[in-house]
Design a protein that fits this description.
With 143 residues, this protein is an alpha/beta fold. It has helices spanning 6-15, 31-41, 83-96, 110-118, 129-136; strands at 18-22, 45-49, 57-58, 61-62, 76-79, 100-103, 122-124. The chain has five helices and seven strands; from the N terminus they run H-E-H-E-E-E-E-H-E-H-E-H.
């Protein structure tokens, strides 16, 4: 069952340190760009993933093609993809050993969530971590 209570979501946001943001954009007008900047400002390391802009940099971080390219352990994968594409990203998150997947506002895939939970990952769906950090008053991550 996806995390839904404030306490569960707060705990996840307090435990996470490294986030892979799938669907990151280099365009400031895109929501993923603003969310990445907000998460970084809060102290998280955010690694952008987007095959269309691989090799460039977004907010100072190198953009990777897909999750399999990442060498660092990932605590959470934040998914900015259509619901129909989220399942493949969840499967990649499972394969790299991520601890959690977060499907952004409007992104819902119950089958993918069930696969993630069966693999031991925490799941949040149809929410935004940047909004929940502010709403819940989560303290910035210490360096």
């Amino acid at each position: 069952m996806p995390l839904t209570t404030d306490a569960e979501i707060r705990t996840l946001l307090e435990e996470v340190r490294t986030i892979a943001l799938v669907g990151a954009s280099d365009r400031p007008s895109r929501p993923s760009n603003g969310v990445m900047a907000t998460l970084q400002a809060h102290g998280y390391r955010v690694i952008p993933v987007n095959p269309q802009i691989t090799g460039t940099h977004v907010h100072g971080e190198f953009v990777f093609r897909d999750l399999s390219q990442l060498g660092d352990p990932i605590d959470m994968v934040d998914i900015f993809r259509r619901s129909s594409e989220a399942g493949a990203v969840v499967d990649e998150a499972i394969a790299i050993g991520a601890k959690a997947v977060w499907l952004q506002l409007g992104v819902v895939d119950e089958a993918a969530a069930a696969r993630a939970e069966a693999a031991g990952l925490k799941v949040v769906m149809d929410r935004c971590p940047a909004i929940d950090i502010q709403r819940l008053g989560v303290r910035p991550i210490a360096a």
